[in-house]
Write a structure and sequence with these properties.
It contains 13 helices and 13 strands. The protein is of the alpha/beta class. Helix 1 crosses helix 13 and helix 8 packs across helix 11.
């Protein structure tokens, strides 16, 4: 499955050594999983640099570069996986980590994965990519114990890794307080979609969106959005009261049942990546009223920047500092419902500003968040 040796490439990139890299994740396409999509795009970007990459997953469709293993993270199954890795002889091993991805069916955290990761560290260099760390909120008592266990397991995984990466600056800052010698770095995530150009006016007419209506889109976010549903409800009510015409667009698993709307709502449900790109292209403003704040670890946000959309969000505990430097991203500090609504109205009323800020977001995305940039940053660190 792997070739071997050193090579100088005469194409776009020159590398000193071809690395044999294995990426471990839980799910891959055709299963719906953002981290699975991330793994595929990340692997493709690493291959574009000349490296050899194999993905190992518990669910997905096997291929020449994808191996599907037993969907179990017990000690016995992980021992088998170690034998497979010994056969592959990788130079570098990447674990795509979230607590839920590697929990049992009952939700327990298998500490056997820590022993497995320590064994991997003896085999080759290892990188832990943290997409989520642990879930523990003071106002949700059921997570007090489970969150503490998740954090304990994660600390052990971090200490057993040669390199640790996260797309979240607040998470990086927290983890650096755990141990003095933890080598953790910022590694952005990219968009899991390609831009497929569509005829925007025709699509709007097809879906009966009035020419004067501004399309406000809620894209992903799960409970972080759901728990802040009152932001959406009050914004909708305020716009309706002042007769500011809008159409709501719900993407990425956002349910209309979470909100009370006065304006028309379009909810396409489960759609393909190309269809999702089309819906983003008829979006006017992308909204992120999240209880934890706008976070760079959301692939949906990266897709919005990629599609040249202005973004309005909340600024909370999980908001990265660099968003202050992105001209097309507007943030309302929590609690700041009035400020959030004011920003939305300002952007609705100024189409030129909307388009200008959207284009600046697209430029920022191509400067910092393409998969090629991400692969370059990763390999520069581990080389």
């Amino acid at each position: 499955m792997f070739g071997s040796g050193y090579a100088w490439l005469g194409c776009n990139t020159t590398i000193e050594k071809i690395l044999r890299i294995v990426v471990i994740t839980r799910r891959l396409p055709p299963h719906i999983c953002g981290i699975g999509d991330h793994s595929v795009f990340f692997a493709d970007a690493l291959r574009s640099l000349g490296h050899q990459v194999v993905i190992i997953a518990a669910q997905g469709k096997p291929s020449d570069n994808i191996t599907i293993i037993e969907d179990s993270w017990c000690a016995k199954a992980l021992e088998k996986l170690i034998h497979q890795l010994n056969h592959l002889k990788p130079d570098h091993l990447v674990l795509q980590y979230t607590p839920l991805a590697f929990s049992t069916n009952s939700g327990r955290q298998p500490f056997s994965i820590v022993d497995f990761w320590r064994s991997c560290n003896k085999l080759c260099k290892t990188s832990l990519i943290l997409h989520e760390t642990y879930f523990r909120l003071w106002w949700y008592p059921p997570c007090w114990i489970s969150g503490t266990v998740q954090k304990r397991l994660l600390k052990q995984l971090v200490c057993a890794s040669d390199y640790v990466f996260s797309a979240s600056q607040p998470l990086i800052e927290e983890i650096k307080t755990w141990e003095n010698d933890i080598d953790i770095d910022y590694l952005p995530i990219g968009s899991n979609f390609q831009v497929n150009t569509v005829a925007k006016l025709e699509m709007r007419r097809e879906h009966a969106i009035p020419p004067d209506n501004t399309v406000l889109t809620l894209f992903g976010g799960g409970n972080a959005l759901r728990w802040f549903g009152f932001y959406v409800n009050r914004l909708d009510k305020f716009l309706h009261k002042h007769r500011i015409p809008i159409t709501w667009l719900l993407l990425g698993g956002v349910s209309g049942k979470w909100f009370t709307f006065h304006f028309p709502v379009i909810s396409p449900g489960f759609i393909s990546a190309s269809e999702l790109s089309a819906w983003l292209q008829i979006t006017d403003i992308l909204l992120y009223p999240h209880y934890c704040g706008l976070s760079a670890k959301r692939g949906t946000l990266m897709a919005g920047l990629q599609h040249a959309l202005p973004v309005i969000g909340t600024k909370g505990a999980m908001t990265d500092r660099f968003w202050d430097d992105v001209p097309g991203v507007f943030l309302a500090p929590l609690p700041g419902l009035k400020k959030f609504s004011k920003l939305v109205i300002e952007i609705i009323h100024d189409r030129n500003l909307r388009e200008k800020k959207g284009k600046s977001n697209r430029d920022y995305y191509h400067m910092h968040f393409t998969w090629e940039k991400i692969a370059d940053r990763f390999t520069e660190k581990i080389s």
